[in-house]
Amino acid sequence: MKYDDIYYIAIKTPPRAIFAFADECEEETDEIYAFGPVEIKNTLTMELAKPIPRKLALSDYHEAGQPVFSKKMADIVKDGFLGINQLFYAELVHKGITYPDFYVFKPNIELEIMHKGRSSFTYESEMYFVDKLSLDENKLDKMEKEQRWIIEPKEEPGHILYHEELVEKFREAEVTGVRFVKVSNWNTGSAFD
Questions:
Q1: pTM score above 0.70
Q2: DSSP assignment string, the chain
C-alpha cells in the first residue's frame, strides 16, 4: 500500500477540449500506440475531436488517446522525469489556425502493478475493469525510481500514473486542465468529484 499515496492519476478538468490525430498522421499515430520506444520524424498534427466546443479554450493538459502536454508541462517532464518514455512535438490545427507547442506523451513502461487482493475489479474477455486501484509494492520495489516516474498500468492502460515528485512540480507550475488524485483516493467516480 505504500505506493498508493505516492502515485497519482490525472483527471481532466475544464476546458475539456479533446484532441484527435489528423488523418494525415495515421502512420505516426500507429507508432504512438506501439509498444516500446519509437522514432517519429514528422510533426504530429492534431485537431479537435467531437464534440467540438463552441469556444476554443486551451489548457496545459489535454488527451488524444495519450496525454497531451503544453510546453510548460513537457519541460517539467523533460527535466528528469521522462525515464524511457517519450514526448513528441505536435501542433493543433483548428479553423485554419495552428496552435503550436504541444507534446504527445508516449508511455514506454507498461507494467502489471495492480495488487489483485486490495483492488476492486472485474476481469472479462482478457480486460480489467478497475473500480478501486491499489499498487503492488513488491513489483514496484524491483524497479529503479528513475524508470517509474510515469507508469502505464498494464491492467488499466487508460490511466497513467504520475509519481508524487512530478505532481508537486506540476502543482508548483500551476498547470491547468488537470487535477491529480492519489491512487488511494481514486475510484471510478473520481472524474465527477
A1: yes
A2: -TTTTTEEEEEE-SS---EEE-GGGHHHHHHHHSSS-----SPEEEEEPSSPPSS----SEEESSSEEEEHHHHHHHHTTT-TT-EEEEEEEEETTEEEEEEEEEE---EE--B-TTTSEEEEETTEEEEEE--B-HHHHTTS-GGG-SEEEETT-TT--EEEHHHHHHHHHTT--SEEEEEGGG--TTGGG-
Radius of gyration of the chain from its Cα atoms, rounded to whole angstroms: 17
- All cell numbers assigned to 26: 495515421
Residue 10, φ and ψ in degrees, nearest 5: -85, 130
Tens digit of pLDDT for each residue in 159-189?
899 999 999 999 999 999 999 999 999 877 7
How do residues 15-52 score in pLDDT, each as one tens digit?
778 899 999 998 898 888 888 899 998 899 999 988 88
Instruction: Give CA–CA dist 193/188, Å, rounded.
Output: 10
